[in-house]
Amino acid sequence: MKTSQEEVARRAIKHALKALKKRHLVEEGAHAPAYIALSRPIISQSSEWKEKAENLEMELQQCYKAQSRLSEQLVVEVAECRALKASLQEKETAMAEMEMELTQTRDECSQLKVDLEEKVRALELVLSEREELKAQLQQLTIRATNAEAENKKLVDRWMLQKMQDAERLNEANALCEDMIEQLKVSGLEKLAREQVDGIVRRSEEGAEFFSESYVPSVCKNRINAHEGGCASIMFENNSSRLISGGQDRSIKMWDSSTGSLSHSLFGCLGSVLDLAITHDNRSIIAASSSNNLFVWDVNSGRVRHTLTGHTDKVFAVDVSKVSSRHVVSAAYDRTIKVWDLQKGYCTNTIMSHSNCNALCFSTDGLTICSGHVDGNLRLWDIQTGKLLSEVAAHSLAITSLSLSRNGNVVLTSSRDNAHNLFDIRSLEVCGTFRATGSRVASNWSRSCISPDNKYIAAGSADGSIYIWSISKADIVSTLKEHTAPVLCCTWSGVGKPLASADKNGVVCTWT
């Protein structure tokens, strides 16, 4: 396109030059008569020549002026031609760039069309999969409905069976009561006192197993019991056999005299936060961080029940001191639940204003004592769930409750680092125990009263164990063996030994 414009300009210039030459030839032809006249004798035509010369001179000047104008016009036209040529080049460059952009846009459009086709195919595939899933969902819904109906039938049959079992149990209990009355009449009162819910168990007072408690001073066994910490330990009733539960989800039974492991129980789905054992030593109940309670048969080592119903971590559990059948638990869902181990389900739920960290049964099995995060000690009626009384026991959260052997006094420990003794009947403070350096390690640190009701043992965040004399209200011993905060202490029901556990999972026995 540039070549064609240059040719047009050249042709225009050539045409202008030809026009000038033609005009020049015409002017020369016009001047020809003058030249002929000049060839005549000068004397005879002098005046005429003179006049014609002047005219020719004027015409020649006019021709020069016209030629000058034409030259100027030619220069202007050449300059304009050059400017047009530059403008044309710029427009051609812009046109080339626009053509490149158009090509790129077309390529992008083609790619977008390809992507759109792929997306459409993927959408069609997703829609087909959705239809398939919808059909599967409908089938599963039908199966679930059928399963629910079948489950309802099974539950109805199971409830009917349970009702029949309950009727048989009531008949057996009535027969048992008749037998007890007959035994009382026949003078066998001791045997009658030892029968509870048809189970012959050891004497409630445990006089034949009980001996005076001693103040421990020596660590007899140091046991690496659990990984990740040990939050609960206890002894079997009227025995020195130790039971521990830890964050590794296991429950272990130890010979406290040798420190050797005798038995392990598995099946807990979360960390073991508290333990309880029935009075016949046949069942162990564990409170778990999995929101459930687990009940093991000690002889077989198998899980007998999984008690579900709490919606948060279960931090406390206790068994009735009258019957091995009733269990009470507390969780951080602000509920306290009463369970029937024979039936395997909850019989009563008590709502509380504050989360419960610790609880225990009264000796008559009719009252529940609970210690709460708000620092209050509360008493509940187990049958009705009614709050009987409460007292502001501490300024901070209560971490532990320990009932004395005769059931008249309860020990409360708190994050305010105080340990108080309350008369269970009047909820009056009988004594307060503190020590410099004694700091409660966690919201679930467990302290204990000795079986003879003479001493109090409590662990501290510095790894020490402080022992107070209840009568003197003084520290009689400070035990140091743990290198981590002590989480719980417990005394054997036979008077010795004392056991303690810390945050590293180490269990120590003291004599």
From TrEMBL:
This is Autophagy-related protein 16 domain-containing protein. One of its GO terms (biological process) is autophagosome assembly. InterPro entries: ATG16 (IPR045160), Autophagy-rel_prot_16_dom (IPR013923), WD40/YVTN_repeat-like_dom_sf (IPR015943), WD40_PAC1 (IPR020472), WD40_repeat_CS (IPR019775), WD40_repeat_dom_sf (IPR036322), WD40_rpt (IPR001680). It comes from Hibiscus syriacus. Residues 45-170 form the Autophagy-related protein domain. WD repeats lie at residues 223-264, 265-306, 307-349, 358-390, 391-426, 450-478, 479-511. Pfam families: ATG16, WD40. Residues 46-186 form a coiled coil. Keywords: Coiled coil, Repeat, WD repeat. The lineage of its organism: Eukaryota, Viridiplantae, Streptophyta, Embryophyta, Tracheophyta.
